[in-house]
Amino acid sequence: MLEGLQQSPPMFIVVAVALGLMVGSFLNVVIHRLPKMMERTWREQCAELNGNVAVSTEVETYNLVVPRSACPSCGVQITALQNIPVFSYLLLRGRCANCKAKIGLRYPLVELVTGGLSGLVAWHFGFGFAAISAIVFAWALVALTCIDFDTQLLPDDITLPLLWLGLLVNTPGTFIDIKSAVIGAAAGYLALWSVYWLFKLVTGKEGMGYGDFKLLAAIGAWLGWQMLPLVILLSAGVGSVVGVGLIVLARHGRNVPIPFGPYLAIAGVIAMLWGSTIMRAYLG
Questions:
Q1: 3-class DSSP state for residue 118?
Q2: In the chain, at which end, N or C, are there fewer CB atoms within 10 A of the end residue's CB?
Q3: 14-23, 52-61, 249-258: lowest mean pLDDT where?
């Protein structure tokens, strides 16, 4: 099978898209449950610090596997046939099979984006370790983007493993030499850390969260320090355009914080796929 995928690029792309759709379905679970799992952990820790052991031990099991997915309106568990990426949403016409409550459009959109990105990465890199690694990188960025949009949190459970995985992937020089990857991780963190403290000293306010530092550090570990200026410029540009659009069109208050993680993620994907081309064109 691996030989067939290697010899047939179209087949590899199709397999990557199909796998991406299935992983996108799982990412919907991660996006929905991981912030709640974090909140439960915080509450348990607070209860233990307050000496309320009973509260901290009475919490029901809640993770990425248990309990099974169910309709939030009627509580009926979702069957395997109702959980087929995209197709189940279309067959059910966007409604619960039991109570006919509307199913959020974001569920199939996350699946489509994850599948599309997987196919794009497979097409760009071709069959090999680089493509498989880049696909995993894209999956993590999709999850972080949606979680940050919802909660303005970038969980350490994703950013830190992503950072270490980037260093491991680049040990044989998959995307960049390991020295550039290590410097990229340190420089990525320190770059936004410096901006954070400079902004806080000038305005007395916090301009971003520590999760943004860790995400840029992870991107630096994957792409090397050479891509960090491009990532920062792209993310700042996209963030500025979207921010102004929200203020003007959606009447988004200027004092309401806007998550920066999604723009870092978008810039990271662009830099991974076309960063070298953009840099050569600019320097040329």
A1: helix
A2: C
A3: 52-61
